[in-house]
Design goal:
This protein is of the alpha/beta class and 447 residues long. 59% of the residues lie in helices and 9% in strands. The chain has 24 helices and 8 strands. Strand 1 and strand 2 form a beta hairpin. The chain starts with a helix and ends with a helix.
Length: 447
């Protein structure tokens, strides 16, 4: 759970002030993710702390969990009284603050104010997508409509999309800008249908001037979402309102997407972000280390660029970790220090994804032990997780069926069967499909 806690806290940290983070979130630990009941258990240092979070940050916590897990989870607190001493002091300090002032604006507007063009480093790999995004921001609805940006994970799609929104909000405050993930859109739709408020839904979406939809690939297989998006698209497009999508693949490559949507996604401009080139990575590392107030020589920036995975999210995580550890140990950052602190991250660069790693991540995701995944146990939960791990081993590695079978202690026909079963299931089971997408994201972001 350490990795998950880390991921969760780093996202929270991006979304609130440092003071708030240090006062309320710093000491939290995620103890457990229950995927069956969709509940996360968070360990907090005191009742006071957990109640404050509950009263003032529940929206932020829920949204952040959803951003990571790609579906809605509830959460509950468990109190660990140890280690609370300096906590209470901090808590006292904050009691007098107006909790409403502490709330972050982005939650209401959807946009993350941190993601701006100013903070976006441009290089060969993203020059085209950046140019397209700035053109759209300067001339919404007029230059390229829709704009469709795609790339692998952690390469700046969400950042660019928010930059467009933030730029327009600032320069054209009269325009109605909306940033949603495709899942927000789906959830909004489902809720409106359930509450019999479809008119409101349509009015709301059709009064938008700039519609920014992140991670559109997740509407694959969701028919009513696609239907409604189709009508929303037409209504906005006809009024020359700007629409921007991001996705992990090009429109053609998204399976389970209606053709009429695919063709519309291709009407405007399609821009991809490629794998970052080493020079731009150095520039990004230098910029991020300045933002994080880390002292880093050019030589060390170069060393990091060459030895970390070409994934900007992973790089940010690595820098944050270096900063935290250097502050904690009160030392300067040097190459031996980097090698020690980032041992695991540095080592996996360029390595092929292994079946063992897939088994580990799938096991963690479903809350099943590795040896159970490899055992003969046939409970439904274990069987599904095992099939998912086999399917992903075919999908993400170059290993043959017999080879993969060996890793699970099974023969090749079991692997073939598993692959076929999962392929069939994800056609209709969108929940499973989403889970698999999340697992792929987790695996890829670590390589
Ligand atoms: P994606 O949506 O493609 O998975 P994100 O936009 O979330 O990726 O980017 C991951 C992290 O990397 C974010 O914190 C973002 O600010 C940062 N990032 C990505 N590209 C750049 C860039 N070109 N310059 C500066 N930071 C970047
Ligand atoms: Mg994103």
């Amino acid at each position: 759970m350490k990795e998950f806690t880390y991921k969760f806290l780093s996202l929270i940290k991006e979304r609130i002030s440092e003071e708030e983070f240090n006062s309320w979130f710093k000491s939290l630990l995620i103890e457990n993710i229950d995927f069956n009941n969709k509940v996360i258990t968070i360990i907090a240092p005191s009742n006071f702390n957990s109640e404050w979070l509950q009263n003032n940050y529940s929206e932020l916590i829920e949204k952040t969990l959803k951003d990571i897990l790609k579906e809605k989870f509830n959460y509950k607190f468990k109190i660990n009284e140890k280690n609370t001493s300096d906590y209470n002091e901090n808590n006292q300090l904050l009691i007098n603050k107006d909790p409403f002032k502490l709330k972050n604006k982005f939650i209401e507007k959807g946009l993350n104010p941190k993601y701006t063009f100013e903070r976006f480093v441009v290089g060969e790999f993203n020059r085209f997508a950046h140019a397209a995004a700035t053109a759209v921001a300067k001339n919404p609805g007029k230059s390229y409509n829709p704009l469709f940006i795609y790339s692998g994970v952690g390469l700046g799609k969400t950042h660019l999309l928010n930059s467009i929104g933030n730029y327009i909000s600032k320069n054209n405050p009269n325009l109605n800008v909306a940033y949603v993930t495709s899942e927000d859109f789906t959830n909004d739709l489902v809720k409106s249908i359930r509450e019999d408020k479809m008119n409101e839904f349509r009015n709301r979406y059709r009064s938008i001037d700039i519609l920014l939809i992140d991670d559109i690939q997740f509407i694959a297989g969701k028919q009513s979402t696609q239907e409604e998006l189709f009508h929303t698209f037409n209504a906005l497009y006809d009024k020359e309102k700007q629409i921007v999508f991001t996705s992990d693949s090009s429109p053609k490559e998204i399976t389970g997407l209606e053709n009429r949507l695919k063709t519309r996604f291709e009407w405007g401009l399609i821009a991809d972000i490629q794998t970052p080139d080493p020079e731009t990575l150095v520039a990004i590392i230098i910029k991020k280390s300045q933002e994080l107030e880390i002292k880093l020589s050019n030589e060390l920036a170069f060393f990091l660029a060459n030895n970390l995975p070409a994934n900007i999210r992973t790089i940010e995580g690595a820098l944050t970790r270096l900063k935290a550890m250097a502050d904690f140990e009160k030392v300067e950052i040097s190459e031996p220090f980097i090698r020690r602190i980032l041992k695991d991250t540095l080592r996996i660069k360029e390595k092929d994804i292994t079946v063992e790693y897939i088994i580990k991540v799938v096991g963690e995701f479903f809350g099943i032990k590795v040896n159970e995944l490899k055992s003969k146990k046939k409970s439904k939960q274990i069987a599904i997780a095992r099939q998912v791990a086999m399917y992903l081993s075919r999908y993400l590695t170059k290993m043959s069926y017999p080879h993969i079978g060996e890793k699970f202690g099974k023969d090749h026909s079991t692997v073939i069967h598993a692959e076929n079963q999962i392929k069939k299931k994800i056609q209709t089971d969108t929940e499973l499909n989403n889970k698999i997408n999340t697992i792929i994201n987790i695996i890829k972001s670590n390589y």
